Amino acid sequence: MELKKELQLFAWILGFFLFAYYMPIGNPTFDNALLQAFELTKWYAQEHVILCLIPAFFIAGVIAVFVSQGAVIKYFGANAKKWKAYTIASLSGTILAVCSCTILPLFSSIHKRGAGLGPAITFLYSGPAINILAIILTARILGFELGVARIIGAVVFSVIIGIIMSLIYRKEEKERAQRRDFPTIKEERPLWQTAYHFFVLVFILVFVNWGKPDTNEGMMFWLWNYKWQITAVFGLLFTLSLVMILKMKPLYVLIAAISVIVTAFVVPSQPLLAFVVALVGLSLLTLLTPGESQDWGRETWGFAKQIMPLLAAGVLVAGLLLGTAGGEGLIPSSWIATLVGGNSVQANFFASVFGAFMYFATLTEIPIIQGLLNNGMGQGPALALLLAGPALSLPNMLVIRSVIGTQKTLVYVVLVSIMATCSGLLYGTFFEVFLL
After folding, report:
1. Over the chain, what HEC string results?
2. What pTM, to 2 d.p., does this model score?
3. What are the pLDDT digits (tens) for 393-431?
């Protein structure tokens, strides 16, 4: 075992040395690709980290701490009402905020404890596909329309795949129907309190990221013009939640709130600075308040340290290989346009199969698809890759196979690839007809 670890370490060192030794510095194509990698990374840091990612981490932390996973999966039992089981399973990703790796032990657990195959498969796909962080970044970076299409596609065809799997293996399902269901789990806090805390944070995230519309009149322009004032109102509602629901010390919350207000008045032309002060204040409050608040802070930091390094690496690699809207990377855009350009069946199928077998760390599919879109990828294949990629990978398939067997795994993979292809074709056609 020790020898294996040492050999792996040696392989990494040797690989890095060979890369550094033969790095083609001075080659115009490579130098430009390197510049594009850092250009893309800089753009992500400036446009998406403070206003988008960090608030989303706090929201994911709320979900992880304040929403009981058991309270969700108890509805997946084989004897549960089908409409309720499929509805909760298809929407569980937004509630549980799990990634493609975290979903596997949960899927294994609910399946072995008696969950119906259909709802379990729906949960397996939908969980990582509509991860709240992924939805927010997709709409923010790849476009609102593609973000909405990702939500609709993931929810709808997760249910369709689950129902098809249930029908194919209905005889086995009847035999499992007599197994015990999940126990009733008592919630420690009323649902309305958790919902209030969650949705206030969501509205803050929505309005700080509200983009300027094409026109200078109408409701959308008014919302953009007053987005920071609207955010301040929700910020006030959020401070009430910190005191009344999370039981933080009022004096600490007041000091943090005054710091934000003073910053906003001293530097009115830089509302982002006041928002940063608010984030720092919230971080300190979670550290200073024992119990659930500290758990919330720890979960938020856990999401950040798990995702940020992977996302940064993904952005750098995407920029290096695919470039940005302002320049090409190492892979010529003509290659990409040939493979996944337009909205043909072949382009959508290739994107879905490629996504199904490749491993995408959480959120790294977004900068990769952004680079592909900049180089000629069609909107349909982009959605196909978004729907197949995050939910499947070769390592993911191996784990699924150990839970439900080889045959069911193959059927599941085929269904995901087919449904992703069909969804890409439909969206690509809709995009060409109505949105171009």
Report:
1. CHHHHHHHHHHHHHHHHHHHHCCCCCCHHHHHHHHHHHHHHHHHHHHHHHHHHHHHHHHHHHHHHHCCHHHHHHHHECCCCHHHHHHHHHHHHHHHCCCCCCHHHHHHHHHHCCECHHHHHHHHHHHHHCCHHHHHHHHHHHCHHHHHHHHHHHHHHHHHHHHHHHHHCHHHHHHHCCCCCCCCCCCCCCHHHHHHHHHHHHHHHHHHCCCCCCCCCCHHHHHHHCHHHHHHHHHHHHHHHHHHCCCCCHHHHHHHHHHHHHHHHHCCCCHHHHHHHHHHHHHHHHHHCCCHHHHHHHHHHHHHHHHHHHHHHHHHHHHHHHCECCECCCCCHHHHHHHHCCCCHHHHHHHHHHHHHCCCCCCCHHHHHHHHHHCCCCHHHHHHHHHHCCCCCHHHHHHHHHHHCHHHHHHHHHHHHHHHHHHHHHHHHHHHHHHC
2. 0.73
3. 776 787 788 878 889 989 999 999 999 999 999 998 888
